[in-house]
Structures are given as C-alpha cells and as structure tokens.
Amino acid sequence: MSKIGQRAIHYLQRLNSASFTSVYASSIEKGQNRVIDASLTLIRERAKLKGELVRLLGGAKASTSLLGVPLGHNSSFLQGPAFAPPRIREAIWCGSTNSSTEEGKELKDPRVLTDVGDVPVQEIRDSGVDDDRLMNVISESVKLVMEEEPLRPLVLGGDHSISYPVIRAVSEKLGGPVDVLHLDAHPDIYDCFEGNKYSHASSFARIMEGGYARRLLQVGIRSINKEGRDQGNRFGVEQYEMRTFSRDREVLENLKLGEGVKGVYISIDVDCLDPAFAPGVSHIEPGGLSFRDVLNILHNLQGDVVGADVVEFNPQRDTVDGMTAMVAAKLVRELAAKISK
C-alpha cells in the first residue's frame, strides 16, 4: 500500500474514533438528562399531591413539607449523613411519643407536616452527573416544593453542603435574600476546603458570595480557626462562639429576624449540640449547646420562617437505641411547628 493510502486510512480511523467519542458523549448526556428529568418529575408530582391536599383542607398560610437530600460525599471526614433521612423519618413516627409539638401543633395534620420524599441523589450520581448539575437539581427540587403554595421546605440532610443549593433556591424563588440562623459547632465558611468548592465546610461561603443571605448568624461555634474568623469578617457574619454563650444567651433567646428581607431560614447542624445530647455526628466537638438551649432559641425567635434544614446526623455513629435520631426528629418536629401557620 502506498504511503498516501496509509495516511488516508489512518485519517479515516482517527475520524471514526472522534465521531464515536462524540456520539458516545452525546448519548451519555441524553441519558443523564433523562435521569434528571425523571428525578424532578418525582418531586414535582409528590409536591403537587401534597399541595392539593393542603389546599383542599384549607386554613393554612404556610405548611411544612419534608424533602430528603441523602448526600454525603462532600463531607471531609465521614459520609454517613447520606443515610440520615430515613432514620429521621422513622424516629418522627416511631410511636414512642405523641405527635404533638411542644407548642401544641399536631404533626398528623397535613397542614402542619407533609413529606415529598427524597431527591434520588445516588441514582443521579450513578449516571455520572457532576456536582454542578447535582446542586442545580437540588435547587430545582426545592423550588418545585415552593411552587405548591402554601408548602415550605424543611430539608433533611445529608451533609451541610446541601444548605447552599437549598438556600439559593429559597432566595431565588422568593426574589431576594433571607436572614439565616445557622446553629453549628463549625462556621462552614472556608473558601474552598480541600479544593472542593462544594465541601460541607464551604457551604456558607457560597451562600454569602451569591448574596442569598443578608444576615448570617452562626450560633454554637467552638471549632474555628483564623480563616473561619477572617471569612466571617469578610462577609459580615455574626459569629456567636460557645466560649461567650453565657454572656450572649439573652440576645440569642430573643432574636428578631427577617424584617426588610424575604424571611428567615434556619440551618441546624446536629453537632451544634454537645455530644452528650447528640453523639451520632461525624465531627464530635465537646462543649456545645444543650437541647433546651436550641429549643429556647427556636421557640423565642420572631420572624417568618420560610425554610429550614437539619443536617450532619450520622446514623453510623449513633447509639444502639438511636438516641441522636430521636434528637434530630425532635428538631424537625419543632421546626415544622415554627414554619407552619
């Protein structure tokens, strides 16, 4: 065969290889789009069902709807929080306590609490979808819940990376920033922790960069370094550390938030609590809030709560009898009462 013929064959082989690669990539992307569309359809139809029920019953200006986001891969340590949503649901309805909140709201009333299920995070990731698109799916899922008035999202994590797409969605859907009350042992405001912009340790940097929060109050902080404080100063964050909690208690138990913005969002990392109350977390930090401290802050808070999340419960580190699951469930119950009206 002539050299010209050999070059021609080599060229055609390269052309076919490039064509095959392009066709394969296009096929993968179409498949991923179908997985995403199916995932959003699942949330859309469940939210529509719950919204229709609540509207039929009438009398609710705001109704809490649970949305699970079982995501754990953005954790810098353990990924057990991905298994938390079903454990929290099980604890809510386990029957060991009645279905009334401390302030007297009945959780079995759909106008107080409904559930639209979980974003199918694992299936989406198994299809090869990257975190940029996954975060968008989480945001769109939250917006689908909010479209069904009077439903408001109470999101079950998952690690704390989910708070970024959730708060982004709430802010975008409402048309402006919210005030955020963040209870946590850590400020989660690293610029890009370990090279991951979506790390659970960087979620509030993304929130503040995006302008989705006007005020960010961080309560229960007791594991913070220079970058955490520098980032707090950069974004004007109000950081309340545990070492001064006794002095700050009166302020924190009489908060008034949300005036002049679109409402209040509450994000609770279970490790805000002292591990004596909640041992089932990935990052155990002694010296935290008591459970009653947290409830006093929540119950006394004045403001229109438009959404919330409970994150970082790790069932793989919980006690045999599920003590932390019950703690997370109680937080969800009281948040549902705070949101619904």
TrEMBL record:
CDD domains: Agmatinase-like_2. GO terms for molecular function: agmatinase activity; arginase activity; metal ion binding. It holds the Pfam family Arginase. InterPro entries: Agmatinase-rel, Ureohydrolase, Ureohydrolase_dom_sf, Ureohydrolase_Mn_BS. Keywords: Arginine metabolism, Hydrolase, Manganese, Metal-binding, Putrescine biosynthesis. Binds 2 manganese ions per subunit. Belongs to the arginase family. Agmatinase subfamily. SUPFAM superfamilies: Arginase/deacetylase. It catalyses: L-arginine + H2O = urea + L-ornithine; agmatine + H2O = urea + putrescine. Pathway: Nitrogen metabolism; urea cycle; L-ornithine and urea from L-arginine: step 1/1; Amine and polyamine biosynthesis; putrescine biosynthesis via agmatine pathway; putrescine from agmatine: step 1/1. Its cofactor is Mn(2+). Mn(2+) binds at residues 160, 184, 186, 188, 269, 271. The keyword Metal-binding applies. GO terms for biological process: putrescine biosynthetic process from arginine, via agmatine. This is Arginase. It comes from Brassica carinata. Catalyzes the hydrolysis of L-arginine to urea and L-ornithine. The latter can be utilized in the urea cycle or as a precursor for the synthesis of both polyamines and proline. Possesses agmatinase activity. Catalyzes the formation of putrescine from agmatine.
